[in-house]
Amino acid sequence: MHVSECKLVTVSREFGAGGSDLARTLGAELGWPVLDQDLVHRVAERLRLDDATIARFDEHPPTLLQRIATVLIIPQPDLYSFPPTGDLPSHDVIAAASTRVIKEAANDLPLIVVGHGAQCILGGRGDAMHVRVVAPPASRVRRIMARMQVDSAAANTMLRRADHDRQAYMQRHFHQDWYSPLLYDLQVNTGRVSIDDASAIIAALVHRSGRGAPTRI
């Protein structure tokens, strides 16, 4: 990667790989704000809806409601509990609002943005570093079980569903392959590298770019 001074980091993450944890740790290390869960609140305000409604549709493709109606094996009723569809904007409207919120937020740097296709929305910027966070399925399942208080079968189902939904979201709204390595400058495997070490690596790259040195990976 070769960038000018880095003032913007996007974090794309596999579900259960710890991407939000990494973003928070990196934000604390750099002293930068992190746009993650607050993005849901900003989109909800823009669309005049409550946060919970937006969160249930966040980064999901339009076909989710139909699939959820036939798959009821996860013991998390609130996770996929929806109000009547007639009361909701379309998935495309929510995705478009998310894109606008990210673009507006990126006018005020420095910033770390988690998910929502930010690597595409802010792609091509010389002041941006795009990071992908992955982990082996077993590691992700353990993290999901601990965080969501579910068993391994439910965690595996949630993992597969989230991966499918995020890939579909990227293809529908950005016409990109979520898995493409060319969308990212750095990939971190949190099954082998700790969150703290990954944060230190990224922070070092950010600081190096600030000294005017070419950042090469």
Question: Care to describe what's here?
Answer:
Mean pLDDT is 82; it is low at 62-86. Helix content is 49%, strand content 11%. The protein has a 5-stranded parallel sheet. The protein has one domain: Rossmann fold (3-Layer(aba) Sandwich), CATH 3.40.50.300. It has helices at residues 19-30, 37-47, 51-57, 64-70, 91-105, 118-121, 137-148, 152-174, 195-210; strands at 8-13, 34-35, 111-114, 128-134, 186-189. The radius of gyration is 17 Å and the shape is globular. The chain is α/β, with parallel strands linked by helices. It is built from 9 helices and 5 strands.
CATH topology: Rossmann fold
Total strands: the figure is: 5
Radius of gyration: 17 Å
* Residue windows where pLDDT falls under 50 for at least 5 positions: 62-86
Rough outline: globular
Trace the largest sheet across and list its strands.
2-3-1-4-5
Q: Which CATH class applies here?
A: Alpha Beta
What's the total helix number? Answer: 9
> Cα distance, first to last residue?
6 Å
Which structural class do you get from the secondary structure elements?
alpha/beta
Q: Brief description of this entry?
A:
With 217 residues, the chain is of the alpha/beta class. Helix content is 49%, strand content 11%. The longest helix has 23 residues, at 152-174.
